[in-house]
Amino acid sequence: MRILAVDDDLKSLKLMEAIFAPQNYKLVTALNGESALALLRGGEVDLVLLDVMMPGLSGLDVLREIRRDRKLGATPVVLITGLEDRKDRLAGLLAGADDYVLKPFDREELLARIGAQVKLVTLRKRLVAELTRSNQDLERFALIAAHDLRAPLQNISGFAALLADDFAGKVGPEVEKHISVIIKSAERMRALIDALLAYSRFGLPGRPFSPVDCAEACDAAIFNLGAVIAAGAAAVKHGPLPVVSGDKDLLVQLFQNLIGNGVKYHGKNPPKVSVGAERRGGEWVFSVKDNGIGIPPEQHERIFDMFTRLHNWDEYPGTGIGLAACRRIVELHGGRIWAESDPGKGSVFYFSLPAGQEAALRG
Ligand code: ADP
Questions:
Q1: What is the DSSP string of 29-92?
Q2: How sure is the predictor about 12, in pLDDT bands with cuts at 50, 70 and 90?
Q3: Residue 324: C-alpha distances to residues 44, 228, 258 (Å)
């Protein structure tokens, strides 16, 4: 268990070292917020003991920075405050500190509070490991199942197509109808398997995030949807979009699913889809707006569940996996996704992504 103690007072750090030395903890120390963040970003720290009052970056600044960071965000932070610093203590707890200890230290109390956090860290590590393993098992299962289903499906659709060709005009309309049902069902199953395969691949260890120009990602999605957009005579445009930290392929997929739905679920009028983004506090909120059939309010949450479809295949083909995939991609990026819509009035799908240093909007 690695504990990072951050305090501008060397004496206080020495005292902590003396208190923790007999315990089974490895203590690393930093004399200011900047070097604390560098240490945190550079390696494995399980828990942070953070002085609130420091020159330069204050403890609260460091805490906020930790909570904003995708990788470090869940690291437990215990504040060190003076008895009289009630305001800072409260601000710290509201900003996401897990606990606090008072200065001057009461050795027993410090150890007890740190011990409680260590128990939580250990438990969380175990749960995360278990969850990761069972997710990987499930994903591997889905991947293998979907992969192995492809070959027999290929046979079904291949032979059904042969039957349709060989017996065209010879077997009567009834049999021809049955064969066409087989072909359509196989097509539908292939779409489902492909979507499932794509979905289960999201969970595989991905590339590290890098700056992604969302205008470029959105353009790529529009390009990929070229045939669908042309077939539906749809007008698709986007306004200025920011650069965010993420996985470009996944963000292209996200735009593609949302824009594709905007085009697909159109009413009588030709589809119009517009994509935009605006800065709200520490995040970017993206919107994908269409003029389509809309969604009843009671379905706004359900539609993000796997396999939920509000229409049958003949009306609007689909798998019910697209929005579940969108939610997964957004959550992998540390954001949220939701819809605002009413039947007949079009839909707006919103998703948020954390804003990084790259705050510029690109057209
Ligand atoms: P799919 O489109 O493959 O059915 P999705 O997960 O993308 O699956 O969407 C789930 C359901 O949500 C769709 O079946 C449809 O009923 C509804 N939906 C999604 N996007 C829209 C939209 N832009 N307008 C109206 N309904 C939508």
A1: EESSHHHHHHHHHHS---EEEEES--SSS-HHHHHHHHHH-TTTTT--EEEEEETT-HHHHHHH
A2: very high
A3: 33, 21, 11
pLDDT, tens digit, 9 for 90 and up, residues 173-223:
999 999 999 999 999 899 888 888 888 777 666 668 899 999 999 999 999
Please indicate whether residue 271, judged by its CB atom, sits closer than 6 Å to ligand 1.
no
> What confidence score (pLDDT) does residue 363 get?
47
For the cut 50, the answer to whether the pLDDT of residue 88 exceeds it is: yes
The per-residue DSSP string of 152-182 comes to HHHHHHHHHHHHHHHTTTTSHHHHHHHHHHH
Residue 279 has pLDDT above 60, yes or no: yes
Determine the straight-line distance between the first and last CA of the chain, rounded to whole angstroms. 47
Residue nearest to atom 16 of ligand 1 (CA): 310
Q: For the range 143-146, what are the long-range contacts, defined as Cβ-Cβ under 8 Å and sequence gap of 24 or more? A: 143/197, 143/200, 143/201, 146/193, 146/196, 146/197, 146/200
DSSP-assigned letter for residue 208: P
Distance CA 102, CA 80 (A): 6
Q: Kindly report whether the peptide bond that precedes residue 104 is cis, defined as omega within 30 degrees of 0.
A: yes
324 CA closest ligand 1 atom index: 6
Share of the chain above pLDDT 70, in %: 97
How many residues in total does the chain contain?
363
> How far is residue 112 CA from its own chain's centroid?
36
For the Cβ of 334 lying below 6 angstroms from any atom of ligand 1, the answer is: no
